[in-house]
Amino acid sequence: MPDAVRHVYFLSDGTGITAETLGSTLLTQFPKSRFYRTTVPFISTVAKARSVVREIDQVALRGEAPLVFSTAVGEEIRNELATCNGVLVDLIGVHVQLLEEALHVKASHQPGQAHGLGNALRYQSRMMAVEYAMEHDDGQSLRALEKAEVILIAPSRCGKTPSTMYLALQHGVYAANFPLVDEDFGHDVLPEPLRPFQAKCFGLTSNPMRLSQVRTERRPGSDYASLRQCGIELRNAERLYVTHDIPHVNSASMSVEEISAVILERMGLRH
């Protein structure tokens, strides 16, 4: 019998992205448990922290203590959050203390550093990579294709667009993507625009059932979404990858984060 739904809070004095990412990663180790998730970002004052504590305490009165993941760095706010009646997992405090001891210097305890502008040059680089990914999405532009660090190729709906956008936004990678269609198969040669850039190509594949489900959401009842058509396209794509020694991965059961990590590793990209 599945467990009851457990309330989970992700708390931060910044955007909450880090708390969500790290907390959710830990929760994946409990696949049979069900969670109701609430993110509270920008807890910038003790008064707001106190308000969040009251909310958590109210939830605790109605059932099991909520799980609380916090990346707040301000000492007063952290101390206030620590008074809640939830199960608090402080994702910052202990680690900052260890680093202070190792570096022999006190931490700044300034919130909002993880996903703010930070290094302005790096931020600008990421935004330029996003613009490049948008321009070169789904083969709509071949301009400056030589600037791409990786070109994702795959049949439609295998995850090219979200992967290129994630690589650009998160890692500043100049990523283009190019769709493989029926006309690209049968000759065992890469589409002409890709031939000068074969070393930059990375292939995505899927399984026919999963691809059919995804395509059916877009065009229900179409030949494009049929299990037969999906199977043909995937087999042809995989043959193309093998023929040209193009690294590839099956994206059917992978998150965009996992796909991107594999691409970075296999392509030797370090950002």
UniProtKB/TrEMBL annotation:
Coiled coil: none annotated. ADP binds at A154, P155, S156, R157, C158, G159, K160, T161. It is an enzyme of class 2 (transferase). Keywords: Kinase, Nucleotide-binding, Serine/threonine-protein kinase, Transferase. InterPro entries: Kinase-pyrophosphorylase, PSRP. GO terms for molecular function: ADP binding; ATP binding; phosphotransferase activity, phosphate group as acceptor; protein serine/threonine kinase activity. The keyword Protease does not apply. It catalyses: [pyruvate, water dikinase] + ADP = [pyruvate, water dikinase]-phosphate + AMP + H(+); [pyruvate, water dikinase]-phosphate + phosphate + H(+) = [pyruvate, water dikinase] + diphosphate. Its EC number is 2.7.11.33, 2.7.4.28. Belongs to the pyruvate, phosphate/water dikinase regulatory protein family. PSRP subfamily. HAMAP family: PSRP (MF_01062). Bifunctional serine/threonine kinase and phosphorylase involved in the regulation of the phosphoenolpyruvate synthase (PEPS) by catalyzing its phosphorylation/dephosphorylation. NCBIfam families: PRK05339.1. This is Putative phosphoenolpyruvate synthase regulatory protein. It comes from Arthrobacter wenxiniae. The lineage of its organism: Bacteria, Bacillati, Actinomycetota, Actinomycetes, Micrococcales.
